[in-house]
Amino acid sequence: MSGMQSEDQRCVIIGGSHAGVSAAFALRKYGWKGEIHIYEKTTYLPYQRPPLSKTFFYEEQHVDLLKLKSADNYVEQNIQLFLHTAITAIDRDSACVTTDRGNSVAYDYLIYACGARALVPSINGINHPSAIFCVRDLNDILRIKEKLKTYRTSPQALIIGGGYIGLEIASSLRKMDVNVVLLERENRLLKRVTVKEVSSYFDQLHSKNKVRVIKQKNVTHIEKAGKELNVFCEDGMTFTTDIIIVGVGIQRNTSLAKDAGLTIKKGIVVNQYCQTNDPSIYAIGDCAMHDNKKYKLQLSLESIQNANDQAKVAAATICGHEMAYDPIPWFWSDQYDTKLQTVGISTGYTDKIVRQEIGQSNSLSIWYFRDEKLLAVDAINHPKAYVLATRIIKKDQLVNKENCANPEIEFSPLHMIVSV
Fold this sequence. Notes:
By secondary structure, the protein is of the alpha/beta class. It folds into three domains: about 10-50 and about 65-115 and about 250-320, FAD/NAD(P)-binding domain; about 130-250, FAD/NAD(P)-binding domain (3-Layer(bba) Sandwich); about 335-415, 2-Layer Sandwich (Enolase-like, domain 1), CATH 3.30.390.30. It has helices at about 20-30, 55-60, 70-75, 140-150, 165-175, 195-210, 255-260, 305-320, 385-395, 400-405, 415; strands at about 10-15, 35-40, 80-85, 85-90, 95-100, 105, 110, 115-120, 130-135, 155-160, 180-185, 210-215, 220-225, 230-235, 240, 245, 250, 270, 280-285, 290, 295-300, 330-335, 340-345, 350-355, 365-370, 375-380. Helix 1 (about 20-30) packs parallel to helix 8. The model has no long low-confidence stretch (mean pLDDT about 95).
């Protein structure tokens, strides 16, 4: 546990991500008296990521609306924000970092909050700069929006990847009246993260909104054909499109940490205090991997909740406060008028209950159990299910599975929770 601090100390934060900014302001909240430096390689004030694939994508919004904090907020809290400045090396022996401008900056504590970048699949021709886009940061979205403005009539877009990002982008494009084809390599959407009932729901939702969803399509190469692009698949099918958007996953930004000798698995391995194998270096957000006690799994979580919670734990620990990270993960996705809310982790479930509310065809919840223990719930347009499931998982309560499976029985805590 840390705690001894003075005005002469410095905490360096690598990355102006949601996690990095949250950690900086949490340090002040928990009493850090020393310097705080945030190094961010982009030129923008740190900004929110979730709206990028949603409202910011299909609405005409000013970039300033995305800001996590105003420039004045950093000044008021005496937080030094270095934009357009990347960290290129970490020297643990000397406790300093090197910037891309050649400066060496000493630290007493280092918080690694570098997030992740878009995964670019190995497809021949995918690096064409003017019409093929990934979706991860603000520049990606601005480039796509600028490209779409060049078309007088509704352009044709092709999305590679039927995960959450691909589906959210498809939803946003349709709101802009863009024609959309979505190619998914697996035999159903969202196969890596959910069950077939949820996959089927979103398949139907997108088809209803005139997205052409085509599964079991593995793209092998892309060729430029005048102003258009030809997309070739393994099975011989070919698609012609104006733009291509790739959303097939992420790569965690761990190279700096690896070069510094920090322990890496899927992410940077941290303990319950978000400390790495070097007690003066912390890792938080998308790039970190922690042991989750409740689920007995090593998890790397990509969510705002995870970023905020780990930021608080790291800041509190540095300032000498007892706080451990023991989360119940939750996530959400907005597509058209549909909201999916997930609480918990369904890995290792032995059985599930699919509950379709009577008279509410768009309201669905899937309850995942390991024997009698509730692990997770996917709630589609069903906030009551999400809220109740969160309570049950937090308190380790038991679900009346017979009542849960019967939509004729009122959905309420009285009927869903087993009295002990």
